[in-house]
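pasting LysR family transcriptional regulator for the record, 293 residues
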Amino acid sequence: MDNWDEIRTAYHVARLGTVSGAAEVLGVHHATVIRHIDALEARLGVKLFQRHARGYTPTEAGSDLSRVAQCTDDQFQQLVGRIKGRGEAVSGELLVTSLVNFSTLMIGALTSFREAYPDVTVRYLTGSRLFRLEYGEAHVALRAGAAPQEPDNVVQPFDRQLVALYAAKSYIARKGKPEGVAELASHDFVGFDDLDSRAPSNRWMKGHVPQERIVFRTSDDRVQLQAIRAGAGMGFMSVTEGDSDPELVQVLPPQEDWSSPLWLVTHVDLHRTPKVQAFLKHLKAYAAEQDAA
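structre below
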């Protein structure tokens, strides 16, 4: 296939379902979109879309083409990310990823980094998915757990994030504050929907808290934090996050087995670029300041 423009047009029509929507995204006239679709269908000898009053619905062939086009478009975007990260100036996009649990630390570090380097545009990506640095999906990753083993990545140890047990003041007012581990069995907890989660705090709870006392369960870390703040039960969060909220009470102080080792990960091709080096240095200094505060 020698005309990527036509394929990309078909992909956006399939994604958005209308000619006008695709035209707006692509910055072309709607007649151009129609012409691209008609030409592509004529070249392939198959209908890619069913036309109807509400818009365009991809046929089976159209769906197949759209999936391939999406993969190709994603790879182009990743290539752009890698190329942009190789510049000599501390400017342009900086793609950083971590679990959402570390967002308080990362947002503070990224904000102060932009104050020092105002020509940088931050893209902060969170989620449980492992972003692939070799495809340019991120320039710097903060990861927790066992040391990453990807052969083309540079891995540096980072501070452990202290984790403690917290409860909302509203929960303490209703249920009281336990004075030690022995009293936890009579209290409500917020935890993971997956009771076999490998998170260190979850493993600890399995040995110290009856399963039936984990009364609010969710798969989303952000929802866990919101539930703890709402008084649904006690739960674990970083000391940085918990101590900054005046409505939360630290029930038990941090323990080493509630946290995982943290790692800063960069791809070998980008590790020595000025932008990546500047951010790594800044993040380490920012984290040290937060620990000392």
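The radius of gyration is 25 Å.
The mean pLDDT is 88.
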